[in-house]
Amino acid sequence: MTKSFHDQVIAILPKLRVQALALTRNRAAAEDLVQDAVCNALSAQDSFAPGTNFPAWMHRILRNRFISDLRKKRETTDIDDMPPSFLSTNAPHEDRIVLKDLDAALARLPDDQREALVLGVLEGMSYQELAEVAGCAVGTAKSRVFRARRQLEAWMIGEEHVGADRLKAQAAALQRKVERNTQEKTASSRV
Predict the structure, then answer these.
(1) Is-contact 97 42, C-beta < 8 A?
(2) What NCBIfam families does the annotation carry (predicted)?
(3) For the segment 104-152, what is each residue's pLDDT rounded down to a tens digit?
């Protein structure tokens, strides 16, 4: 039995809130965004084709509404506006520091990478669903998640740019290989 349109809207609300919070980085703005997106969806419910991917359709409406609102306002929201309870934890002090660093690193990611990471990793969307929501190719969605993960890893271990130490190590290994080849050629030419 298929769910009614309203039942599907109610079921997707928690995921829409997560996506809205990732986009706005402000709890009040996120709730407003979800409410506006649901209003848009209800007014456009006749355009939804039953049997198609309802979550992707709703996430796309929310994302488009966010973009429209950005174009109207042209102002950004600071991550510091987020209530402390959002990152509350009973973990030791070191864990709280790591969470704070992770939150700051997430805020530094480009919007498209942060959105892809949140929807793909935290929400568990498939790359296909993520591509539909973001309006891009599946390969682009995969790339955004991959780049976001790599950049977060680099920032969390103290590198400013992705792979800076890895690139240096690869360059050094390549240099050693060239030197060995040169030495081998010199040694073989003497024989």
Answers:
(1) no
(2) sigma70-ECF
(3) 888 888 989 888 888 888 788 889 988 998 899 999 999 998 998 888 8
Which sequence spans correspond to the domains of the chain? 1-77, 89-160, 167-191
Residue found under tokens 């309870």: 85
Q: The dihedral of CA 37, 38, 44, 47: what is its sign?
A: positive
Q: CA 169, CA 167: separation in Å to the nearest integer?
A: 5
The domain defined by 1-77 folds into Rna Polymerase Sigma Factor; Chain: A (1.10.1740)
Task: Count CB-CB contacts under 10 A for residue 181.
Answer: 10
At residue 77, the pLDDT reads: 47
- CATH topology for 89-160 is Arc Repressor Mutant, subunit A (1.10.10)
> For residues 35 and 24, what is the distance between their CA atoms, to the nearest angstrom?
14
| DSSP summary character for residue 90 | -
How would you classify residue 25: left for phi > 0, otherwise alpha for psi between -120 and 50, otherwise beta?
Answer: left
Average pLDDT over residues 156-181: 67
| pLDDT tens digits, one per residue of 75-87 | 554 556 656 555 5
How many CB atoms lie under 10 A from the CB of residue 32?
15
